TrEMBL record:
A matching Pfam family: Lectin_C
Keyword Signal: yes
InterPro entries associated with the record: C-type_lectin-like (IPR001304), C-type_lectin-like/link_sf (IPR016186), C-type_lectin/snaclec_domain (IPR050111), CTDL_fold (IPR016187), Ice-binding_C (IPR013424)
Keywords: Signal
Entries under Gene3D superfamilies matching the protein: Mannose-Binding Protein A, subunit A
Organism, as annotated: Zeimonas arvi
SUPFAM superfamilies: C-type lectin-like (SSF56436)
Signal peptide positions (record): 1-23
C-type lectin domain: residues covered: 27-148
Protein name: PEP-CTERM sorting domain-containing protein
Recorded superkingdom: Bacteria
Amino acid sequence: MKRVWKQMVAGLALGVAAQVGHAAVLWNGHEYDRVDSEGITWSDANAAAQTMGGGWYLATITSLAENDFVVASVLPPSTGDRSHYWIGANDAANEGSFVWGTGEAFGYSNWWGGEPNNAGGVEDYLAYDARSETDQAGSIRMSWRWNDAPDNLGQVFSGYANGYLIERAVGNSVPAPGGLALLGLGLGLLAASIRRRTRG
């Protein structure tokens, strides 16, 4: 029994530590985060976001301001060429007509030149794609824009599918990571108290 209790407390502590390290960011009434998951398909990313509960879904980017925020605050600042992070739109039902999973209008876009191109007739899923480009000063820098990609991008091209971006309305938030840390601390103190009582 003592061993099971120790394992339970250790597991909870690890879960709390993972939550504390998980830092979502807020903008305009919504919370955003990045989930790193090498090789994940768009379909699995979409399912995983919904399975999380709490109102999470694959991010829906509907304005330049929202795009600039996500690029600056959620996507990694530097990454290898052709890194992709899935977001919540696809044109699987009607080629060329992208729709957001939330039903919001697809009025804003941030495509790379020549995209979307439905290469091979299988590129139906939307992702941020990092590519190097030359800026106006002649310097090469990494930029994030959109690309249509096949669902199995990570299996076809190793290193291309790196994860996905999630979003939810702030009103759907679960307890803040700080609250989870306090819960973990309280359970740790409870465990220490029980150990003292059983030894004494």
